[in-house]
UniProtKB/TrEMBL annotation:
<feature type="region of interest" description="Disordered">
    <location>
        <begin position="1"/>
        <end position="27"/>
    </location>
</feature>
<dbReference type="Pfam" id="PF00759">
    <property type="entry name" value="Glyco_hydro_9"/>
</dbReference>
<dbReference type="InterPro" id="IPR001701">
    <property type="entry name" value="Glyco_hydro_9"/>
</dbReference>
<keyword id="KW-0624">Polysaccharide degradation</keyword>
<keyword id="KW-0326">Glycosidase</keyword>
<keyword id="KW-0119">Carbohydrate metabolism</keyword>
<dbReference type="InterPro" id="IPR008928">
    <property type="entry name" value="6-hairpin_glycosidase_sf"/>
</dbReference>
<dbReference type="InterPro" id="IPR014756">
    <property type="entry name" value="Ig_E-set"/>
</dbReference>
<comment type="similarity">
    <text>Belongs to the glycosyl hydrolase 9 (cellulase E) family.</text>
</comment>
<dbReference type="GO" id="GO:0000272">
    <property type="term" value="P:polysaccharide catabolic process"/>
</dbReference>
<dbReference type="GO" id="GO:0008810">
    <property type="term" value="F:cellulase activity"/>
</dbReference>
<feature type="domain" description="Cellulase Ig-like">
    <location>
        <begin position="539"/>
        <end position="639"/>
    </location>
</feature>
<keyword id="KW-0378">Hydrolase</keyword>
<dbReference type="Pfam" id="PF02927">
    <property type="entry name" value="CelD_N"/>
</dbReference>
<feature type="domain" description="Glycoside hydrolase family 9">
    <location>
        <begin position="729"/>
        <end position="1124"/>
    </location>
</feature>
<dbReference type="InterPro" id="IPR012341">
    <property type="entry name" value="6hp_glycosidase-like_sf"/>
</dbReference>
<dbReference type="InterPro" id="IPR004197">
    <property type="entry name" value="Cellulase_Ig-like"/>
</dbReference>
């Protein structure tokens, strides 16, 4: 190959000391937030004499250093280097940005990306220089709080590629980036990393950019050494390339002893021909993003030391395995062909066969057939009556719980194994309480849809259309998307599943035309269904609109048009130009509008991932100018209609009532039932019922359940002497969380926002009525304030006589399988007071004192006194508590939390008391006054300061506070305009995961658009707030809301333990976390893709568009869970604000 000029990296070994960083040829730091220290490090390097060290100084940082690359020419080159990091690093990366003559970016090539503490690691990555590239920038980036080092950077020719270096997937000295589930990865030296756990239900992995091009015929070999306690017999290796995954299965030799062995995948699977392929797209070996090792998900203990994972040339034994694999595949292909023929000829129908529930239009020539297979049955608890042959199998998670009146160390969960009619032991549920209550879990009945034929045109027949109208024709195309719609029972054969099958017709249907759809080769209960094309009547899944509806004076009203068929991709609606609103009463057209492209399928959205998250064109149907109250359908001529929706003054008020019902249903320490709750729920965790909560010696800054367990174990001693524990009878009440029943300091945020809503519109909230217990419904307080006080007053009870506030109540583990909140047998503790909780409480109590001042002066005075005592205690004790917490190994991010809540408490107390000392305390810790820190974490304080009376505020600080909120709102609007469904946040760098309420909450992690409107009254901020509610209100590709009991379709299986364990449907008002990016990797995500969705979802779960990726299966926390302070508060606050604002030109009259 002819040589050509290569770009050179100047001072890539950092031998020359000069310039702003101490390293010649490198730029000054470029910082987006925080403070970045960049120095030439002569003490820590890969090669003498130095490396370059980037370090977060004093808080989280996002910044970089760079060097321009000269002499770029079209073609390719390699960049090599060595990296390592330590500390709490969110992102560490080396990348090349290639730009044209006008500095427009042509390509971004990430050379290496990693996080976590690591030894020095080598990388080598190919860079393709496109035509037109005139400029390149080599960048070293750091995000987070840690430190990274870079050394030995160089550019080399492609033909000098180091094949041995490139073939290494993992080396022990580098360690794993993360572990998850039951497995722990420890160590990290040349001798190996130990992967161990009490069961094989977990794994470990690395995030690393790897280029494995040209190595497809090689076999991934794992060099490992079994430990003495290892009992697992197999492993799984997963190699990910963003949207595709190659999976390899390994059998471990049983006679290896404890000697190192080299294991290769079953049947000689190679990089290009793995054991299994998952995900969407084409696996690109040049763009590997992560590598994971997983256990086999059995209960066998794991003890393995892994030294290396490398791609190797197949030897004779492996080649023989590959030949046998080829022969087996040929036999399986023939067997499959015969099975398909048999299934087509004789589908197995019956009363419990899958049912066709709807046929809906996606286009004049495209129909979607919705089929439901199986039925999941909720089962209530029942008395456990022992039967002959019963076995109680405890899990391997010992905890502290009560049994027969004693505190014992015992298994967290106990599964009942019972013989079935065939004499086989099968799981029959869990026993709880004193092992006298049985929860049978859920049950399943019915047949699944025949997988052999469902995707074949021959399985369907279209009659009444085309040239062969009588005998029928096959559809032109068949496409499918299938997902589970209920919890599964460990196997894909027992999962209630929704199938949506798109059938392409041979000709478009005219209005009024009828087509009969037959299922000659599919095992549906109906052999045939009839569909009459009536676009003005039939609902189309392609048209999405808010199921909350809108107020007449809402300045934003929009529907959306989009459809993804699954394995057939997106649907083009280019020919659609107009839409209408139809009056539900008489089907008359009352509005006509233009269909406009929102975000095209090939456009990357503002969401993280630099790609499109809908996988189809999304069109916008705007009807903001239409203001007439009524019930309507959005109609696209020739296509179909949306769900009915309302335009009415009470639209947001009705939504607020649903949200507040959800909060009410999560109260602890009170009995609830009809009409407040759909089912009877006894009073949970109240001292008058004999329930004890014990005082802990640790704070909430040191952890959650694990911290509780360890501290109670320390106090109890080996003899489990409860006499050594102190009971805290005041520790009851508050709002419980989702998958557990903790009540922690973060719940104060919910109370704060509810009180802020009342403060912004006091007259409105004084007049409205909510579902509350009688004594609260009849008092003088605003009902929303009453709900807020259920949490505030818990923490007022948790205030000590000295003034410190304890940070919450937590159990020693997550709830036991099958146990309801009022049956809790786990030991429960209340945390010791800490300064962060005390500041946080002081802020909320001070706001409560102002809000309650008119309705109940005495109660307001009590909250004022509590707020001032909490603030004084926090100031006097913060240094001591921080030091003690750090000495016990806790306290991550304590200083930033202290600043956030001290500034908030100070401004709220200043507003309440007008005492100058609080104004000075605010100045001392607020980023507005120049205090170092992250301004994003102090939005609450900024908004509170911006609303201070002019007589109290420093004009310059007030202007800065107002500017901070408005600038954040502008960022949020820009972000919303960059994605298809108007998702809104002022923090664009957030990962697209459900834990953030990314799709289910307005504003995601902030309230800046609401607050910007409150400060300015500008309509565009109001419109942005309403738009931010669309997706979660049902204007999404799933046509479902993300709050139970809201709209036409809502979640059926949120992670709500009390209803699940008692066989009831969940209460209304639960806003789940919602969709997550299906391409997210890591322990919290991978297990569900592997063990809950594989074999059920089609296409592969990783291939779904993010905007449609919600699976209603109860047990997946990043989707099905929720918390009081992550989802409930933001929807209630936002919907309440939208309900409370005055009507345009007239005062609001709440109903």
């Amino acid at each position: 190959m002819p040589s050509r000029a290569l770009p050179a990296i100047q001072n890539g070994s950092f031998t020359e000391a000069a310039g702003p960083t101490g390293a010649a040829a490198w730029s000054e730091p470029s910082v987006d937030r925080g403070e970045l220290s960049v120095v030439r490090d002569t003490a820590d390097f890969a090669s003498a004499p130095a490396s370059l060290r980037l370090e977060a100084a004093g808080g989280p940082v996002s910044g970089s250093v760079s060097q321009r690359l000269e002499d770029l020419a079209p073609g390719a080159f390699l960049v090599r280097g060595k990296v390592r990091s330590s500390g709490d690093v969110d992102l560490a990366s080396v990348a090349v940005s290639l730009r044209d003559a006008s500095y427009e970016q042509l390509a971004w090539v990430e050379l290496s990306r990693w996080s976590g503490g690591r030894a020095w690691r080598s990388f080598e990555r190919r860079v393709e220089v496109p035509e037109g590239a005139a400029d390149g920038l080599l960048m070293i980036l750091l995000q987070g709080r840690g430190t990274l080092w870079v050394d030995d950077l160089e550019v080399v020719e492609v033909d000098r590629r180091d094949a041995e270096l490139a073939s290494v997937l993992f080396r022990a000295e580098d360690g794993f980036d993360y572990d998850f589930g039951a497995l722990d990865a420890t160590g990290g030296s040349q001798s190996g990393v130990r992967l161990s756990g009490s069961t094989a239900r977990g794994g470990a992995g690395i995030h690393e950019k790897l280029d494995l091009s040209g190595l497809g015929a090689r076999v991934p070999e794992i060099r490992l050494r079994p430990g003495a306690t290892n009992r697992t017999s197999s492993l799984t290796l997963q190699i990910l390339a963003d949207d595709a995954k190659h999976v390899f299965r390994y059998d471990l030799p049983r006679d290896a002893g404890t000697e190192e062995v080299e294991v290769t995948p079953r049947e000689g699977a190679t990089l290009q021909d793995p054991s299994r392929v998952e995900g969407s797209g084409t696996f690109d070996p040049a763009a590997i993003t992560s590598v994971q090792v997983l256990g086999d998900w059995t209960k066998d203990p794991v003890d393995l030391t892994i030294r290396e994972i490398r791609l190797v040339e197949p030897g004779p034994e492996v080649l023989a395995e590959q030949a046998e694999r080829t022969r087996r595949r040929a036999e399986e292909a023939e067997a499959h062909r015969l099975a398909v023929e048999a299934a087509l000829a004789n589908p197995q129908r019956g009363e419990d066969a899958p049912r066709v529930v709807a046929v809906r239009p996606v286009g004049a020539d495209l129909l979607e057939v919705e089929i439901h297979a199986g039925r999941t049955i909720r089962q209530p608890q029942q008395p456990y009556i022992k039967q002959p042959g019963d076995e109680l199998r405890p899990d391997e998670n010992p905890t502290l719980r009560r049994l027969d009146g004693r505190v014992v160390v015992a298994a967290e969960n106990v599964r009942l194994m019972r013989k079935n009619d065939k004499g086989e032991l099968r799981s029959a549920g869990y026993v709880v309480g004193d092992q006298d209550v049985l929860w049978p879990e859920v049950d399943f009945e019915g047949l699944l849809l025949e997988p052999l034929t469902v995707d074949l045109p021959a399985a369907y027949r279209l009659m009444g259309i085309g040239n062969a109208a009588a005998e029928g024709v096959e559809p032109e195309e068949v496409h499918r998307k299938s997902r589970p719609v209920a919890p599964n029972l460990e196997t894909a054969e027992r999962v209630e599943t929704e199938h949506r099958i798109a059938l392409r017709l041979p000709a478009p249907l005219e209005a009024g035309q009828t087509v009969r759809i037959g299922f000659p080769g599919l095992n549906t209960a109906q052999q045939e269904v009839t569909y009459t094309h009536a676009p003005r009547v039939e609902r189309s899944p392609a048209i999405h609109v808010s199921q909350i509806g809108y107020r007449p004076d809402d300045p934003h009203k929009r529907a959306y048009l989009s459809h993804w068929t699954g394995d057939g991709g997106g649907v083009a609606f280019d020919a659609v130009e107009r839409f209408e609103l139809l009056d539900e009463r008489n089907d008359e057209t009352v509005f006509r509008g233009e269909v406009r492209m929102g975000v095209a399928q090939d456009t990357a959205e503002s969401l993280q991932g630099d790609r499109n998250h809908s996988l189809t064109d999304v069109f916008h149907l705007d009807f903001s100018d239409f203001r007439t109250p009524g019930t309507y359908r959005v109609h696209v001529p020739g296509l179909g209609c949306s769900f009915p929706f309302e335009i009415r003054h009470e639209a947001w008020m009705d939504a607020l009532r649903v949200a507040m019902r959800g909060l009410l249903a999560h109260r602890s320490g009170i009995a609830l039932g009809p009409p407040l709750l759909p089912y009877e729920r006894p009073r949970p965790m109240h001292p008058d019922d004999g329930f004890d909560v014990y005082q802990l010696g640790v704070t909430t800054l040191e952890g959650e359940a694990k911290a509780v367990l360890e501290d109670l174990q320390r106090q109890l001693g080996d003899g489990l002497d409860t006499g050594r524990l102190t009971v805290a009878p005041e520790a009851w009440g508050g709002h419980m969380d989702a998958g557990d029943w903790d009540r922690n300091r973060n719940h104060l945020k919910t109370a704060y926002l509810l009180l802020e809503a009342v403060e912004l519109h006091p007259e409105f909230f004084t007049r409205i009525s909510l579902a509350l217990p009688e004594d609260e419904a009849s008092d003088a307080l605003p009902d929303v304030a009453n709900e807020a006080l259920w949490t505030v007053d818990l923490f007022r009870r948790l205030q000590t006589s000295e003034g410190g506030v304890r940070g919450g109540i937590e159990s020693a583990a997550h709830p036991r399988h099958g146990e309801a909140s009022w049956q809790e047998t786990l030991l429960v503790g209340v945390f010791a007071p800490d300064h962060v909780s005390s500041y946080h409480f002081a802020a909320v109590a001070a706001k409560a004192a102002r809000v309650l001042a008119v309705a109940d002066p005495a109660l307001a005075a009590a909250h004022r006194e509590a707020a001032e005592r909490a603030f004084a205690w926090a100031e006097a004790n913060e240094a001591r508590v921080a030091a003690e917490v750090a000495a016990r190994g806790g306290g991550n991010n304590v200083e930033a939390l202290r600043d956030t809540f001290r500034s908030l408490a100070a401004v709220e107390l200043y507003n309440l008391t007008e005492a100058p000392r609080y104004h000075q305390a605010f100045r001392d810790t607020s980023t507005l006054a120049g205090h170092p820190g992250n301004a994003l974490e102090q939005h609450d304080a900024a908004f509170a300061y911006a609303r201070l009376p002019a007589s109290l505020a420093d004009p310059a600080l007030a202007d800065a506070a107002r500017a901070q909120i408005l600038e954040a709102a502008e960022r949020a609007i820009a972000f919303a305009e960059g994605n298809a469904f108007g998702l809104t946040t002022d923090i664009p760098s957030l990962p697209v995961m459900g834990w953030l309420g990314y799709f289910s909450t307005p504003g995601i992690l902030s309230e800046v658009c609401v607050r910007a409107h409150a400060l300015t009254g500008e309509e565009r901020f109001l419109a942005a707030t309403i738009r931010s509610c669309d997706f979660a209100a049902g204007a999404n590709p799933m046509n479902r809301t993300l709050t139970t009991g809201l709209g036409h379709r809502s979640p059926r299986w949120p992670l709500h333990m009390d209803s699940h364990h008692t066989g009831h449907a969940p209460p209304p008002g639960i806003t789940v976390y919602g969709p997550s990016d299906p391409q997210l990797a890591g322990g919290a995500f991978d297990w569900a893709h592997t063990w809950r969705l594989a074999g059920v979802m089609h296409p592969d779960s990783r291939a779904w568009p993010t905007s449609e990726f919600y699976v209603d299966i109860f047990g997946w926390p990043p989707m099905n869970e929720y918390t009081i302070h992550q989802t409930f508060h933001r929807v209630a606050y936002t919907w309440g604000y939208l309900a409370a604002r005055e009507r345009s030109g007239e005062a609001e009259e709440p109903s």
